[in-house]
């Protein structure tokens, strides 16, 4: 059984396309085109299910038409509409970080040296310099901290334990407080 810790979200199935079972997927990450993996994982009724890719073609820069094996009609494809699409982490090799989008890091814990800052809950890509949106919990309260997602600050990435160790400039965390 595939667990949430083993995957990361790359998009969502919007609707069926045509009569032969193709679906349209809006994606945030085209990792499936850059890394060799025979399937994508769809969430159906809260369960993560692999669907093997028969073929795909890009519609736009953020949309792809996918034909899954054994999905051969628009009615079958309609049942997948609205499903969130995931990619399995094991197909991403450590040290091959150029293959990974920043969305992969949602759920990772940020450490500043040996001090835990919080967990990445989102990526802010509205500016030229992307930011990790980090949920910092203190006692019964929590707040969001913005941390530059810049490789200059990253000292280590532990993919297995989902930890990013950073060396942040002094005062950066205090600026957000």
Commentary on this structure:
There is one protein chain. Strands 1-2-5-4-3-6 form a 6-stranded antiparallel β-barrel. Strands 10-9-8-7-12-11 form a 6-stranded mixed β-sheet. The longest helix has 5 residues, at 74-78. With 177 residues, the chain is mainly beta. The model has no long low-confidence stretch (mean pLDDT 86). It is built from 3 helices and 12 strands, in the order ββαβββαβββββββα. 24% of the residues are buried. It folds into 2 domains: 4-99, RimM (Elongation Factor Tu (Ef-tu), domain 3, Beta Barrel); 106-176, SH3 type barrels.
SSE layout:
Layout: E1 7-17, E2 22-27, H1 31-34, E3 39-44, E4 47-60, E5 63-68, H2 74-78, E6 84-88, E7 109-112, E8 115-124, E9 131-138, E10 141-148, E11 154-158, E12 163-166, H3 172-176
Parallel strand pairs: 7-12
Antiparallel strand pairs: 1-2, 1-6, 2-5, 3-4, 3-6, 4-5, 7-8, 8-9, 9-10, 11-12
Fill in the keyword field for this structure.
177 residues, mainly beta, Elongation Factor Tu (Ef-tu), domain 3, SH3 type barrels, six-stranded antiparallel barrel, 3 helices
């Amino acid at each position: 059984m595939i667990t949430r810790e083993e995957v990361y979200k790359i998009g969502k199935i919007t609707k069926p396309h045509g009569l032969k079972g193709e679906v349209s997927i809006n994606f945030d990450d085209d990792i499936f085109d850059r890394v060799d993996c025979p399937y994508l994982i769809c969430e159906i009724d809260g369960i993560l299910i692999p669907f093997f890719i028969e073929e795909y073609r890009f519609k736009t820069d953020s949309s792809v038409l996918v034909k899954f094996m054994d999905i051969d009609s628009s009615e079958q494809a309609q049942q997948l509409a609205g499903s969130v699409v995931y990619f399995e982490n094991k197909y991403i090799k450590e040290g091959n970080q150029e293959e990974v989008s920043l969305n992969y890091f949602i759920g990772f814990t940020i450490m500043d040296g040996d001090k835990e800052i919080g967990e990445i809950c989102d990526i802010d890509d509205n500016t030229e310099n992307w930011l990790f949106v980090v949920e910092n919990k203190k006692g019964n309260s929590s707040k969001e901290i913005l941390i530059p997602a810049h490789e200059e600050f990253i000292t280590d990435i532990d993919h297995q334990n989902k930890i990013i160790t950073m060396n942040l400039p002094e005062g950066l965390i205090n600026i957000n407080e």
